Amino acid sequence: MQTIIEPFRIKSVEPIYFNTVEERTALLKEAHHNLFLLKAKDVLIDLLTDSGTSAMSSAQWAGIMKGDESYAGSESYFHFEEKIQTITGMPYVIPTHQGRAAEKILFSILGGKNKYVLSNTLFDTTRANIEYSGAQGIDLLCDEGKDTSLVANFKGNLNIQALQEQINVLGSENITMVVLTVTNNSGGGQPVSMANIRAVRAICKAHNILFYLDACRFAENAYFIKTREDGYADKSILTIAQEMFSYADGCTMSAKKDAFANMGGFLALRDEALTKQCRNLLVITEGFPTYGGLAGRDLEAIAIGLDEIMEESYLHYRIRSMEYLCNKLHDADVPVMRPAGGHAVYLDAKKFLPHIPVHEYPGQALACALYLHGGIRSVEIGSFMFGKYNVFGNLIPATHELVRLAIPRRVYTQSHIDYVAEVILEVFQQKEKIKGLQIIEEAELLRHFTAKLIQLN
Ligand SMILES: *Cc1c(COP(=O)(O)O)cnc(C)c1O
User: Fold this and answer.
1) Which residue's alpha carbon is nearest to atom 12 within ligand 1?
2) What are phi and psi of 141, to 5 degrees?
3) Measured between alpha carbons, how far is residue 218 from residues 13, 281, 414 in Å?
């Protein structure tokens, strides 16, 4: 087979500033062993997130110049609206400044006390918006999805039997909606099958429950359906995406993911009365209905990005890049989550650093080691991010200790990815030298963004 090449060439570049292990040692100390506190210029390869970090195309930059900044009735809005209507089949489109703003509007109206939202896995901002409204979120991930090393096609699926049981227990009248996150971000970027979407739809319909998609990575999910699910190999990504959305009553989306934009999001719906309520709230919190929280140029860049994300040569390269890194690490016995997800590769820090107990944060220790050794910035998804304390002040650990390497879209080339793999392998060879960490200062909520740590000896 021939090498799968990047389906783009480079017109404009940004420099990477090289630094040494000694310099990074000092920088890491200054940042209190918290990679969120580093300056981006001190990072060589930044795999902190795939959100808003995509490289825009020349067509998108041209669209930025063409953006219509009219307060009302902007041409760029109509371009944006038409594109989203075509993909989702949903008549009502509400632009927001990012995904969480769409969630905030939706759950301010549909959430509230004694209500439940069921999901394969709610993303953290979605869960936060649900809980902030007084409602509760419940994750019902399929069993395959819970096993980090099991290779299966659709590890993002919702457990249909558990959904049925929860509906019986809670009562359909208390369930605000079911949300399927595609792909399942918090579950490793694993896809949801069309069969699962259809089954969720059927149950929701039978019980008169709303069904929404959290569609941030709809194109990556559609590509997995095309390549892994029977009957879809010959269908276009657009056709598959249209079928996915056809089962849903509405969707929220962050354009910072599968729209190649640096900022933006939207809410799309089929219900006219609910749309009216959402637009009333939009005007107070975001802006007029034809721009929401965005500039005309953002709307234009998103409309163009939504077309580009569905190009098969792009998705082929995108999904293959994740597999490439994942396989390289797996072949060298590095513990990774398998199979590769759509937007990231996850290291299993508990297995990588068995000598570091969970209360010394092996994931964070590994993330720091990757920065020290090779200037790579990743993010811990484990007890540093999600850990809580019991009444005695002891850590209640998270279920997994992972380090996520999220790959920005169209930003890094194969040699960057090769370098990342080399650094991880070198760190793996001297893993016994890595030491645990202790938190010395932390905020009550979302502590991982600001907490300070020290290295233990
Ligand atoms: C990023 C993300 C969101 C929130 O979007 P923002 O644009 O960051 O506000 C919601 N759901 C999922 C699955 C995401 O990945």
Assistant:
1) 123
2) -70, 145
3) 28, 26, 24
Q: Considering Cα of 268, then 274, then 276, then 281, what sign does the dihedral take? A: negative
Amino acid type, 50: D
**Phi, psi of 327, rounded to the nearest 5 degrees:** -65, -40
Cβ of 126 less than 6 Å from ligand 1 = yes
Q: How far is the CA of 392 from the centre of ligand 1 (A)?
A: 34
Q: Which residue has the CA at smallest separation from atom 5 of ligand 1?
A: 99
How do residues 6-61 score in pLDDT, each as one tens digit? 999 999 999 999 999 999 999 999 999 999 999 999 999 999 999 999 999 999 99
452 exposed, middle or buried (CB, 10 Å; 0-12, 13-18, 19+)? middle
Closest to 450 measured CA to CA, from 125, 32, 51, 50 = 32
CB of 214 closer than 6 A to ligand 1?
A: yes
Q: How far apart are CA 123 and CA 214, in angstroms?
A: 9
191 — pLDDT class (breaks 50, 70, 90) = very high
The class level of CATH for 21-50+312-455 reads: alpha beta
CATH class of 58-308: alpha beta
Q: Whole-angstrom Cα distance, residue 407 to residue 272?
A: 38
pLDDT of residue 292: 95
- Ligand 1 site-directed mutation target among 139, 214, 216, 404, most atoms within 8 Å of CB: 216
Q: Which of 49, 100, 260 to mutate to test the pocket of ligand 1 (most atoms within 8 A of CB)?
A: 100
Q: Where are the domains of the chain?
A: 21-50+312-455, 58-308
pTM for the model stands at 0.95
Q: How many helices (H) and strands (E) does the chain have?
A: 17, 16
By C-alpha distance, which of 43, 35, 47 is closest to 452?
A: 35
Q: Measure the CA–CA gap between 406 and 383, rounded to whole angstroms.
A: 19
Q: Which of 166, 248, 139, 142 is nearest to 202 (CA)?
A: 248
Q: d(Cα 84, Cα 117) in Å, to the nearest integer?
A: 25
Please indicate whether the domains covering 21-50+312-455 and 58-308 agree at the CATH topology level: no
Q: Report pLDDT for 2.
A: 87
Distances (CA, A) of 278 to 148, 291, 453: 38, 14, 42
Band (pLDDT 50/70/90 cuts) for residue 187 is: confident
Q: Is any ligand 1 atom within 6 A of the Cβ of residue 265?
A: yes
CB burial of 312-344 (b: ≥16 within 10 Å; e: otherwise) equals: eebbebbbebbbbbbbbbbeeebbbbbbbbbbb
Predicted local confidence at residue 1, as pLDDT? 77
